[in-house]
Design the sequence.
């Protein structure tokens, strides 16, 4: 019994790392640019398809394809900020919400048109391997994904804390006007924020490929997780998003193990609704009201 | 007096225009016999109605819900359960469905209105999904994932079943007329002003005595009620219901989309938006058939993006500019 | 004369910051009181506490004999307190007339009557020419006038004005001062938050000075300008000259 519990926790923790990459992106964009990126999941999907094609066409391991998917998505992020998002900043809610929502719809349905709804998988030598410790099975692919996810999160943390650009981003997040007075160019900062957030999404996609199928709707599941984690971890709070994502991964896994195979979604929604009902500001402090 | 004379002079062409449109609409089924064409018109009227219902809350008060499918589904399921399990006429079931939706909007609103902006929207998406999951999982409630068909009673007007497609056309036309009438009344009363004020700046509205929580709650109830009526109608029209259809996210999307594209917060905006989107959709279908999954939404999303980037107030602005020169009436919403 | 607004021991803390501490003062009916103090003193926070946008941690606020702590802003407005915001918040999509009508609807839900009342308020602040303009097209000053007209349309007994004079040139200040004077003549009780000394000296019968959330002085204008604590709060240690003229207060800063 304890073993089953521990196994479920491990499984949840590992996938939680991926959720973290996605939710950190969402919370970063929200904190800095002050918009909610409804399309974040679709960028995970794009990362997955990139890795899929690199794997099937050029035999590049998905983990190696990180080196390609991340920069590509970074550039996409910069473009999206500069071409699209910039135009709706300063307007009211409706354009801001529905622009990224439209983007999400567009990308998802384009993928549906181009790739069809079929599941695409990549099989690597480590896709089915597991490490055995005690009575526990730790899937290698998921473990690598988790470790790399934590590495990337850590790298982001260092970037935000130690580098000038990172500090500029945090400054712009806290007080855009004052940051501008200090000579910080908001558009540049926003571009970087979008770029990083999408790169993280792309990374999540590449890391997922060894053990998760790619299909047009795949982003929807992850973005839902991300939103709940962001709310739970408090809007704009990167560490909060990280911890909340790990918690949600574990909660989902426990739900699947002990309640039922399809209870994952219900657990997530329950967590969202409970958070909204009792702690709409999340657990990390800050306000949910825009 | 001069204002009255002016008013009549201004209104006359508009009323005339309205009468003209109304007569065309009423006469339409007599002229158009093609079942396929009638179906398109019914879809247009139906989604106009759903859009009008959404617009009351999302357009005027700017509470941008993407979860209205919840009420569509509740209406659909209420009337169907009453009909199939208890033999109650869908005419009654429709009203009961509306009431169920109204009641459901209270706790949902209480939860969702704690958040503003995009997080309100996300919360509404979540509630619609939760309802879908509930109806999928709990088979005792209502047939689970497979749903059910409505027993075909042939021509049974009292049970909202008709042989003639035109009958469905008139029903949904009536629903749209009701929705537009309600919107018109609200728009020109203190409620309209209050709703727009809340949509513009809730804090400022509160400062001048607007009870924002209560108004949001009330308009949500009305919006939910009307949306539920649409749910009942649609189920009767296609003789089938299942959670995926009744709580389909696409319904929530289109409800919002037609208003945004046509003219958010305006009386005719949802109608204009629906005409554009549904016509486009019908054209796409006739050109490409159903072979390309995703085409319709791709096109919808491109239209949405275009509107947001270039004309966020909606296409009605183009028409509005012309008509506003005729009318000196202060627009409540631009 | 009765008390329009009685504040007793009002406090509010935000995280580590004690924004308002133990604040007490009374505003008599038909009095014009100025709430002044350096930036960050807690003036706007006090307004937010009084008008129900934030809930005080402690203390009581009673308006016209009724305790209003805990009431939502719309109820407080219905009870007779109207406020303007430091940064004007017009309903941009509506016309000026529609904006003010929205305020008028508080007392009468009939469109015709609300329109008439709104027109009166608009005329009072001098915006009649721009009645049909969309509010978002107004200049900042006109937006402030709109704020005031909208607040007046709710037929308040007590008006709270948050820095309405900010950024106005001297002639505009005089106009605003005249407006406030007229309101006072109509029997309105007025509380203004202001930095513009000239206006304060012209309209205020009574002044309350805040610094770091606490009341440091209270009294008639001529006493306040000479009050050392007040001067110190604004300017640091200084040498004080007697006020050069009514409405002007001059102090020079000397290194101390």
Sequence:
């Amino acid at each position: 019994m304890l073993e089953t519990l521990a196994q479920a926790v491990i499984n949840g923790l590992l996938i939680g790392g991926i959720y973290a990459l996605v939710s950190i992106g969402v919370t970063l964009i929200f904190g800095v640019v002050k918009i909610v990126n409804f399309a974040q999941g679709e960028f995970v999907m794009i990362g997955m398809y990139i890795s899929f094609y690199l794997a099937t066409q050029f035999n590049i391991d998905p983990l190696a394809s990180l080196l390609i998917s991340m920069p590509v998505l970074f550039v996409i992020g910069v473009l999206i900020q500069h071409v699209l998002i910039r135009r709706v900043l300063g307007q009211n809610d409706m354009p801001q919400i529905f622009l990224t929502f439209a983007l999400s719809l567009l990308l998802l349905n384009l993928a549906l048109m181009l790739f069809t709804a079929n599941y695409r998988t990549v099989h690597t030598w480590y896709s089915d391997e597991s490490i055995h410790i005690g009575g526990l099975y730790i899937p290698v692919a998921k473990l690598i994904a988790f470790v790399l996810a934590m590495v990337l999160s850590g790298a982001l943390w260092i970037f935000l804390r130690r580098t000038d650009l990172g500090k500029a981003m945090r400054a712009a997040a806290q007080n855009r006007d004052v940051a501008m007075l200090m000579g910080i160019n908001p558009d540049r900062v926003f571009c970087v924020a979008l770029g990083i957030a999408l790169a993280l999404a792309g990374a999540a996609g590449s890391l997922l490929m060894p053990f998760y199928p790619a299909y047009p709707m795949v982003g929807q599941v992850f973005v839902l997780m991300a939103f709940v984690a962001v709310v739970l971890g408090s809007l704009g709070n990167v560490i909060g998003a990280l911890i909340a994502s790990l918690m949600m991964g574990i909660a989902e896994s426990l739900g699947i193990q002990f309640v039922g195979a399809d209870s994952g979604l219900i657990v997530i929604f329950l967590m969202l609704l409970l958070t909204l009902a009792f702690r709409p500001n999340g657990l990390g402090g800050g306000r949910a009201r825009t | 007096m001069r204002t009255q004379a002016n008013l009549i002079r201004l209104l006359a062409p508009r009323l005339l225009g309205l009468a003209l449109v109304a007569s065309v609409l009423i006469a339409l089924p007599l002229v158009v016999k093609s079942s396929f064409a009638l179906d398109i018109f019914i879809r247009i009227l139906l989604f106009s109605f759903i859009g009008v219902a959404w617009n009351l809350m999302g357009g005027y008060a700017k509470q941008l819900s993407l979860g209205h499918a919840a009420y569509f589904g509740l209406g659909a399921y209420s009337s169907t359960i009453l009909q199939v399990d208890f033999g109650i006429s869908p005419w009654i079931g429709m009203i009961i469905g509306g009431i169920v939706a109204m009641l459901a909007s209270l706790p949902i609103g209480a939860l969702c209105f704690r958040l503003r902006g995009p997080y309100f929207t996300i919360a509404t998406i979540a509630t619609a999904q939760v309802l879908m999951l509930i109806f999928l999982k709990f088979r005792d409630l209502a047939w689970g994932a497979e749903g059910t068909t409505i027993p075909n009673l042939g021509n049974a007007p009292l049970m909202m079943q008709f042989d003639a497609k035109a009958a469905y056309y008139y029903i949904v036309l009536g629903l749209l007329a009701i929705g537009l009438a309600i919107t018109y009344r609200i728009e020109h009363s203190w409620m309209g002003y209050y709703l727009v004020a809340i949509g513009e700046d809730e804090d400022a509205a509160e400062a001048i005595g607007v009870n924002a929580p209560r108004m949001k709650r009330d308009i949500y109830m009305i919006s939910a009620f009307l949306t539920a009526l649409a749910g009942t109608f649609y189920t009767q029209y296609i003789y089938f219901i299942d959670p995926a259809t009744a709580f389909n996210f696409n319904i929530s999307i289109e409800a919002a989309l037609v208003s945004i594209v046509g003219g958010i917060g305006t009386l005719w905006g949802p109608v204009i938006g629906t005409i554009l989107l549904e016509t486009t959709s019908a054209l796409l279908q006739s050109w490409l058939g159903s072979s390309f999954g995703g085409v319709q939404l791709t096109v919808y999303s491109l239209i949405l993006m275009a509107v947001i980037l270039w004309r966020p107030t909606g296409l009605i602005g183009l028409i509005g500019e012309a008509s506003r020169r005729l009318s000196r009436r202060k627009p409540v919403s631009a | 004369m009765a008390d329009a607004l009685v504040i007793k021991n009002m406090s509010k803390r935000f995280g580590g910051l004690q924004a308002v501490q133990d604040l007490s003062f009374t505003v008599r009916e038909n009095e014009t009181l100025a709430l002044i103090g350096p930036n960050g003193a807690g003036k706007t926070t006090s307004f937010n506490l009084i008008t129900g946008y934030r809930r005080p941690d402690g203390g009581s606020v009673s308006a016209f004999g009724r305790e209003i702590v805990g009431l939502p802003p719309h109820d407080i407005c219905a009870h007779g307190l109207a406020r303007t915001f430091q940064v004007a918040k017009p309903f941009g999509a509506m016309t000026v007339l529609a904006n003010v009508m929205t305020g008028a609807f508080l007392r009468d839900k009939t469109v015709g009557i609300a329109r008439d009342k709104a027109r009166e308020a608009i005329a009072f602040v001098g915006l009649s020419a721009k009645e049909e303009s969309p509010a978002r097209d107004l200049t900042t000053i006109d937006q402030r006038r709109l704020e005031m007209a909208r607040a007046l349309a709710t037929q308040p007994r007590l008006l709270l004005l948050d820095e309405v004079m900010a950024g106005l040139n001297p002639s505009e200040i005089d106009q605003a001062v005249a407006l406030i004077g007229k309101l006072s003549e109509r029997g309105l009780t007025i509380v203004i938050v202001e930095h513009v000394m000239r206006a304060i000296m012209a309209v205020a019968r009574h002044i309350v000075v805040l610094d770091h959330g606490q009341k440091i002085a209270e009294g008639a204008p001529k006493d306040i300008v000479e009050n050392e604590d007040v001067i110190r709060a604004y300017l640091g240690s200084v040498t004080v000259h007697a006020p050069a003229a009514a409405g002007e207060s001059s102090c020079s800063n000397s290194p101390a």
Remarks:
- Chain A has a mean pLDDT of 88.
- The CA atoms of residues 211 and 240 of chain A lie 26 Å apart.
